[in-house]
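MODEL INPUT / OUTPUT PAIR
PAIR INDEX: 1
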Amino acid sequence: AGKRPTIMSSGHCYDDFILNNPGGTIIDVRPMNGITQDPATKRWKLETGATVGEMYWGMYSKGNVTIPAASCTSVGLGGHISGGGYGVLSRMLGIAPDWVSAADVVTVDAKGHVELRHVDKKHDPDLLRALRGSGGGQFGVVTAFYSDNPPPAPKEVAQFNVRFEWNDMTPERLHRILWL
């Protein structure tokens, strides 16, 4: 219909790409939020409407495994994984897309035909690579990511924040804070 589509997996977006889409169409995948493991194959299915927090809890409580992702648990998996997936465990385990082995994605061809596709290293491997961190929603609507062998969850994670008054900041003070 000539409208710019915007995919919403949680609504969390620093750049306001989701709700600020005048005349566009929002495709809301939040109801697709399952975190499941196939008992036969042990493959994890991570639906893109789930948040990082739901993914962490689901994978940990059902299998004591995880994939490295954001520290902000309200971030949606769809945008986070397809947008790069850096997070608190990345130095130890890499980024979230490193652990994605397949995806379900809805694509539209030049004639307007809609197709649900399952992509992996044998079926459309170039599309799978594109969905694994290179542009958040540019190649179709991802409905699920799959992970075949995620790493064990760490026993503990330490996270802290440093805050300072920006009004009193000078280039010299900022350099001392960042390079001590």
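PAIR INDEX: 2
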Amino acid sequence: MDVLEAQYYLTTPLFTGGAYKQELEKPRPPSFKGVLRYWYRALAWPRLGNLEDIKKEEGDLFGTTKKQARFKLTLITRDCKELTKTASWTKQGCTYFGYGLINYKGELQRKAIEPGMMLTARLILLPDITPNQIEHLIAALKTMGLFGGLGSRSRRGFGSLSLEKIVLNGETQWFSPTNEKDLVNEIKGFFKKFGELPPMLPPYTALSKRSSVWISRGSSQPSYLLNELGKSMIRYRSYGNKRGNKHMRNKHMLFGREEAEQIFKEDHDTLIDFYNNKTISRHPQRVVFGLPHNYYFGSLRISARVEGSNEHRQRRASPLFIHIHKIGNSFAALLGLLPAEFLPEGDNIKICLKERGGNNEKLLEPGVDYGILENFIEHASKKSGLDLKRIL
């Protein structure tokens, strides 16, 4: 049987296992396969453009409850160590991206695997697999190693897996570029293979004409890149705490006395109006970063939660993927933006204001602006000095 191998380098801490597990857990094949399916699906939309066809093709390749996959997957790890030197990964920006994994004091809440681990995904291809299916597998393995990762908070840069090479039956099919120019050309060439991308928003997170990719300038420290991007998101999204006649950063964000820009002041004012029983007709625009979206108003001692109205679909993952990629002996941040229909048809955005004595709720039709995320990338490029450039 043929053997397909993809070798990855872990560039940022990987948080695996459940919230209550205290032991360090290595990546598991079911988790890897699940992420691989996700990226296969993202690439299948521009090829097929039909949900039923995608479901059938995916089931034929990855298996269903009634039939096995056309490959067997094993994972081989090397240099898998627990992260113990945490200082560079628990600064304010990384802490913000690691919400739930790192507390505001910069303390890890779960064990993590240290960057530098080598992970090899070995796929034993069964005799009935077709050449087209092998091609789709290789494409998904590449995309996972250019924009994705494993574990918790992978869309915010943790657990980034940087693809080093792909080998089929002992022959190397693909090598990772060793400089930024070659990497950019590789990404452009990869997506050019899909031809004219569909112009409309896909029904799920997938490649379309609305997709974009950005790359930062290089750095010798992957933690620096992730921290600067995290700080940039704090700057962009934060309303700040009032101190005197100014609104400063939240004291837990450790930004010193930097004044908040209040780019989304209308979001803040909308919820205050709702609290004051005024009619509101818009939801917070920051929902485009993902749901749920939480607020706390210290002066009023109330909290608000913004989420999907369907109790089975209250969450909506971010369409912005942050990935730290290894390029030779350096690192760069790759940002992938994959807009799609924000919520299924018929779902609304629910604002729930939690007060003493009960809750106050409001349902609003979703009206997200994906340009907000592009503005964030441009804002981050200027404020952080990472010089983010659009390449797709």
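PAIR 2 NOTE: The first helix runs from residue 29 to 48.
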